[in-house]
Amino acid sequence: MNKIALITGANKGIGLETARQLARVGDIHVILTARDPAKGAAAARTLTDEGLDVESLGLDVTDAASIAAAARSIEQRFGRLDILVNNAGISVRAGPARVSAEPLEAWRRTFDTNLFGLIAVTQAFLPLIKKAPAGRIVNLSSILGSITLQADPKSPIYNYKLATYDVSKSAVNAWTVHLAYELRDTPIKVNAAHPGHVKTDMGGDNAPLEVSEGAKTSVALALLGPDGPSGAFIHLGRPLPW
Ligand code: NAP
User: Fold this and answer.
1) How many domains does the chain have?
2) Residues 28, 221, 202, 36: is their CA dihedral positive or negative?
3) I want to staple 214 with a disulfide (CB 3.0 to 4.6 A). Which of 123, 181, 198, 199 is the partner?
């Protein structure tokens, strides 16, 4: 029986590469989702042209009706979901970099996608993940969400303060820990991933990692065996400080 995997924000960047690498495993049917169905279909076509088992589905993580429709479609067609990768994310640069001056609208917009969207998608799909033998939930976080490293003047990210983005990812980390606690007596594992600084539209052209490397953490957490961690914050197999 093939596993069913669903990835949000997968029409480009790390999400698209995660779809590719999961489909290459061989026994996984990948649902590549995108808020723009045409972009999702085009991205899925590039992967099916590579001989991979991928289809696309519209899913805007900020739109309750879109989330509900996607969950209904997966329920009707498959009756379960083995892997959910909450990959969709935005970084809004609306104002000055100072946290004290960042407009509330930028906080709301960032949290709508990066946190509330992730929560809404997870809540909608959790009943289907519980029907899978050993569900896996991967939440795309960022090292910039590490409060420990943000507070340490000696840390390499101390001077990288993208306030709304960083705080939204700290909240994703906290949500991950709380969900892992709730699911601690189930086979489901939920973890937060830092992909690295990756060459994408978000990461920029000067980022050191290619997407092939950037998708590895999501893929590894999606494929964790029964002995793998839950409620952890991981980059390429190593835990990061919260
Ligand atoms: P990206 O190339 O900008 O891709 C982001 C994806 O999210 C796009 O497919 C985008 O769709 C989608 N998206 C945005 N809002 C959405 C919504 N409301 N509903 C559904 N999809 C939505 O970014 P990336 O670098 O691949 O980032 C992927 C994840 O990794 C993000 O969560 C990001 O925060 C995290 N991350 C990235 C880096 C890095 O260096 N790149 C580092 C740390 C963490 P559209 O094409 O329609 O905009």
Assistant:
1) 1
2) positive
3) 198
